[in-house]
Amino acid sequence: MQGYVHSIETLGALDGPGLRVVVFMQGCPLRCRYCHNPDTWPMAGGTEYAPTQLIAKIKRYKPYFLHGGGVTVSGGEPLLQQEFVKEFFKLSQKEGIHTALDTSGFKLDDGTKELLEYTDLVILDVKHSSSASFYELTGHKMQGLLNFLAYCKKKQQPLWLRQVLVPGLTDSEEQIKDLARLMRGANLTKAELLPYHTLGVKKWQALGYDYTLEDVQPPSAAELAKWQQLLENYLKENLK
Ligand code: SF4
């Protein structure tokens, strides 16, 4: 079995605990309006790897994983190549390497469930908490995410919640409150809002895609901190 990898980032400190190697898989079915990696969308392309080739490359970094680090598979959308990721995670765990899956959780089927058996942490990027706005933002229905999240709750899968704070689209009290409500019952170990940024705009233009958020400015640090605090407050209410 072969997997198609868009790129590999060594020793990132953002996508999971500790220092990590982040593997970005090729292909994504969503079309998030703020996506900064539209070059990952097509299934065609990327570098071909067998799971054994990928683990041989990554295990060289094991000395850096000592303090809770490991490997994160991101994208694109890694669930599009879930069989490959499962085989790769199996090999990673055999090497004692912590595995994290950074996903939009857009679907749940038997293959997804098998992959989660070898996933130590899911980093779940919830694009929006209302189904109509989710569709408007991603061009994809929300039901797959709801199924994926329900299954994670049932098996108490360790989860990090992520959402991009997009001024005018996700920065409303109702949206944040509903987001917290959505996570009720999840085994949540971290929740973070990431600031919208415009670093991907040039890629959209180069690929000939129409970028629709041109007038949106990134949130200030103070705005981000305010919404982050609100999210944490609502999440605490889930525990009462
Ligand atoms: S899920 Fe990620 S890669 Fe796919 S369109 Fe959205 S931001 Fe881009």
How would you explain this protein's 3D organization?
The chain contains eight helices and eight strands. It is of the alpha/beta class. The chain has a single domain, classed as TIM Barrel, CATH 3.20.20.70. An eight-stranded mixed β-sheet has the order 3-1-2-4-5-6-7-8. The structure holds iron/sulfur cluster. Residues 28, 30-32, 35, 37, 40, 75-77, 104 line the site of iron/sulfur cluster. Residues 28, 30-32, 35, 37, 40, 75-77, 104 line the site of iron/sulfur cluster (SF4).
Major sheet summary line? 8 strands, mixed
For the largest sheet, list the strands in their spatial order: 3-1-2-4-5-6-7-8
CATH superfamily: Aldolase class I
Shape: globular
Broad structural category:
alpha/beta
Q: Whole-number radius of gyration?
A: 17 Å
Count the strands? 8
Q: Helix segment count? A: 8
CATH hierarchy class name: Alpha Beta
CATH topology: TIM Barrel
**Average pLDDT across residues?**
96
| Low confidence ranges | none
CATH architecture: Alpha-Beta Barrel
**Which molecules are bound besides the chains?**
iron/sulfur cluster
Topology:
Layout: E1 3-12, E2 20-25, E3 47-49, H1 51-58, E4 70-74, H2 82-94, E5 98-103, H3 110-116, E6 121-125, H4 131-138, H5 143-154, E7 158-165, H6 173-182, E8 187-195, H7 201-207, H8 221-238
Parallel strand pairs: 2-4, 4-5, 5-6, 6-7, 7-8
Antiparallel strand pairs: 1-2, 1-3
Helix pairs in contact: 1-2, 2-3, 6-8
The structure holds iron/sulfur cluster.
